[in-house]
Design a protein that fits this description.
Elements lengths: L2 E6 L1 H5 L12 E2 L2 E2 H4 L2 H6 L1 H16 L5 H8 L5 E6 L5 H5 L4 E3 L2 E8 L6 E3 L16 E5 L9 H8 L4 E5 L20 E5 L7 H4 L4 E4 L3 H13 L3
Parallel strand pairs: 1-4, 1-9, 4-5, 9-10, 10-11
Antiparallel strand pairs: 2-3, 6-7, 6-8
Helix pairs in contact: 5-9
Length: 231
């Protein structure tokens, strides 16, 4: 069975009503990234950080997978599909995708500040004073700017064995996620779906690349039709 590795970014979930990570004004939901998505922000004002992610959690609860999420699931009929997402939502899983790696963490999970291996499912608000079983304050299970990406090595291993690489809704400018393309072997076919695709240095070195300037829903519809053929 041939293997498809799908790299998804904020544009994948935009059509479900989730704002992209950075709008044109450089803000995320009217907040500076430095104030809500860094370790320093957590130390300066944990109440603000928790409230920010509480609001994101509420927003995600009101959203549903779009047809792009759902269409990717169809590929599992014929291919080994591994999704590697920069998104912190659970829309891939809700659509039915079986294998999903969240590079930047998951909004519906929290972890201990003292024992990071203690991770809990969490769908409600998180507040100061809510602790792990060993007494550490809980924080969002999100990889903030300046923190290591724990699942990067696993994602690299998946990319190294891909027959197809599909990039959806990401500028390919945020590292280390953008570096994953360098681990895809030279013979791998690459499909890049984005309304405004950015050809990074890694992508510029590839010859087997197809660029489709479209939304995620439209681009994935075309992708699935070509890879699965007449249904």
């Amino acid at each position: 069975m041939e293997k498809i590795v799908v790299l998804t970014g904020a544009g994948m979930s935009a059509e479900s009503g989730l704002k992209t990570f950075r709008d044109s004004d450089g803000l995320w939901e009217n907040h500076r990234i430095e104030d809500v998505a860094t370790p320093d922000a957590w130390h300066r004002n944990p109440h603000l950080v928790l409230e920010f992610y509480n609001q994101r959690r509420k927003q995600l609860n009101s959203c549903a997978p779009n047809s792009a999420h759902q269409s990717l699931v169809l590929l599992e009929e014929k291919y080994d599909v591994q999704i590697i997402t920069q998104n912190v939502d659970d829309l891939h899983e809700r659509a039915g995708s079986i294998k999903v790696i969240h590079l930047h963490g998951e909004l519906f999970k929290v972890r201990s500040t003292l024992y990071p291996e203690l991770i809990y499912d969490w769908t409600d608000d998180l507040n100061i004073g809510e602790l792990c079983q060993r007494g550490g304050q809980l924080r969002p299970h999100i990889v903030w700017f300046g923190e290591e990406v724990p699942l990067l090595e696993r994602a690299i291993e998946e990319c190294m064995t891909a027959d197809y690489c599909v990039i959806i809704g990401t500028s390919m400018q945020v590292y280390p996620a953008a570096s994953l393309i360098r681990y895809v072997h030279k013979g791998c076919k690459i499909w890049y779906i984005d309304p405004k695709p950015h050809i990074s240095h890694e992508l510029s070195l590839r010859s087997k690349i197809r660029i489709q300037e479209s939304s995620a829903t439209e681009g994935v519809r075309v992708l699935v039709a070509e890879l699965l053929g007449p249904q």
